[in-house]
Design goal:
This protein is an alpha/beta fold. 37% of the residues lie in helices and 18% in strands. A hairpin with a 6-residue loop joins strand 2 and strand 3. The protein is globular and about 70 Å long. Bound molecules: nicotinamide-adenine-dinucleotide (NAD).
Length: 441
């Protein structure tokens, strides 16, 4: 039987890379909830109930009644950013939340002043801030981030730290076997300042894991999605997960595609497009940064509706006639700011191949959807560390667009939302001392 999680000891430090729209919405929401002025809607750790026990013994309990989650009152925040604005100024600039939802926690927010960022302009060309570390090499970056984590622990008195990346999407870094497969090669490349293969995000992840902090990647960056980082997470006994918060369109996709798959309908094409006007949208307007996002967004559908398994249903539609056509686009459109609009056009076919269409128009709020994921990922990775779980945490795939999987062994990721939910529930059961099971609730 898996290990039961130990009760938390002292406070939990949450160090966030990037103090932009998502992070300030997350931090402000936690602070407002603590004061009883807001509700943490969308957070599974605060609302969801899971069945434990079977038959006459079954009960439905909130996560906190099954496992020893950290309490919201025990969280202390810190952040790094390229721009020097504090969390209050940054929350106002982001224009996600209304002033009335920020002002009551103004004093607390002002205290969160961003630490200097480990940043390389070549990884996000549209950012021009100068609150940046002066680092000669990538290894030097690592050392400075490690020092930041130690200092934060000392000054705030927190017992444990989780590091969460909610910074901009970096340019696409393809996996390079010579650098990214073995930990010793990765370290060598950092010391030799191989700026092509070592993104700043890798320095944050490396530093976090070395300092005994779980690391969560909220953007689609390659960062921990490399064997060298898996090796480090095993060595330091720290949890890591997949990448890229599963918020709007991909959440819909991973929940909707199973309808097509379960009813054995055919798919000719799925076209997804978005308009978005926040800083994230601006960075993603750069083709090299969008490429990172595109890879992450495309993978979802392909592992749910698999052409090789059902060639009659999914084997048509693209140039080679071997697979449905799948296209994803993001367009920067400032007037909408953080209120993203996503359109999905799905060309399906039914009995005897007759075509039909489904249209989904999701008018969402990006950071409002991402904030509860930040909270859940932070609390659950802290919990996993206390349960002695380390390395890739597959149960966290529920919250991420790209579940981490061992591609060197051809492991297929689980993208199906409801299968991911079963993994999540079973991990919670196990960490609460119950048995995992597959019973239908
Ligand atoms: N909101 C969503 O629905 C959603 C979903 C999935 C992923 N994401 C990802 O979350 C991330 C944050 O989104 P956002 O809307 O808050 O963006 P944002 O642009 O408002 O904030 C990102 C912040 O990160 C800072 N930054 C960039 N590189 C940095 C570095 N190396 N070190 C420290 N700070 C750095 C920027 O200066 C900026 O302030 C993006 O990568 C986005 O793709 C968001």
């Amino acid at each position: 039987m898996a290990e039961k999680a130990k009760a938390p000891n002292g406070k939990l430090g949450v160090m966030i890379v990037g103090l932009g729209a998502v992070s300030t919405t997350f931090i402000t929401g936690v602070m407002m909830t603590r004061k009883g002025l807001a509700k943490p809607v969308g957070s599974m750790t605060q609302y969801d109930k899971i069945r434990v026990g079977r038959g006459a013994d079954k009960k439905y309990l909130k996560y906190k009644d099954i496992v020893p989650l950290a309490d919201l009152n025990d969280i202390e925040f810190a952040a790094w950013d390229v721009y020097p604005a504090n969390a209050y100024e940054s929350a106002l600039n982001a224009e996600v939340l209304k002033e009335k939802d920020i002002e009551p926690v103004k004093e607390e927010l002002i205290k969160i002043k961003p630490l200097k960022a480990a940043f390389d302009h070549n990884y996000a060309k549209r950012l021009t801030g100068d609150n940046v570390k002066d680092a000669k090499t990538r290894w030097d970056m690592v050392e400075q981030i490690r020092e930041d984590i130690r200092k934060f622990k000392e000054e705030s008195g927190v017992e444990r730290v989780v590091v969460l990346w909610a910074a901009s999407t970096e340019v696409y870094v393809p996996v390079n076997e010579k650098v990214h497969y073995k930990l010793e090669d990765l370290e060598k490349a950092m010391k030799e300042n191989d700026v092509e293969n070592i993104a700043p995000s890798m320095c944050y992840a490396y530093a976090a894991l070395k300092e005994g902090a779980p690391f969560i990647m909220g953007a689609p960056n390659t960062t921990v999605d490399i064997p060298a980082m898996w090796e480090l997470a095993e060595q330091t006994k720290m949890p890591i997960a997949g990448k890229d918060f599963k918020t709007g369109q991909t959440l819909v996709k991973s929940g909707f595609a199973p309808i097509i798959g379960t009813r054995c309908l055919g798919l000719n094409g799925w076209f997804s497009t978005n308009i978005l006007g926040n800083r994230d949208g601006l960075v993603l307007d750069e083709p090299a940064n969008f490429r990172t996002k595109e890879v992450s967004k495309l993978s979802t559908l392909e592992s749910i509706l698999v052409p090789e398994e059902q060639p009659d249903l999914y084997g048509h539609g693209n140039d080679e006639d071997t697979q449905y056509y799948h296209k994803v686009r993001i367009n920067y459109y400032p007037p909408r700011n953080d209120n993203k609009e996503g359109w999905d056009n799905i060309d399906i076919f039914g009995w005897m191949g007759y075509p039909m269409q489904i249209k989904i128009n999701f008018l969402c709020r990006d950071s409002i959807l991402a904030a509860p994921l930040c909270l859940d990922l932070v609390l659950l990775s802290d919990l996993a560390a206390r349960a002695g779980r380390y390395g890739t945490q597959r149960f966290l795939s529920f919250f991420l667009k790209s579940p981490q999987h061992d591609y060197t062994e051809d492991e297929v990721p689980v993208n199906h939302l409801f299968q991911q939910y079963v993994m999540l529930k079973n991990a919670i059961r196990e960490m609460g001392g119950y048995e995992a099971d597959e019973e239908i609730d």
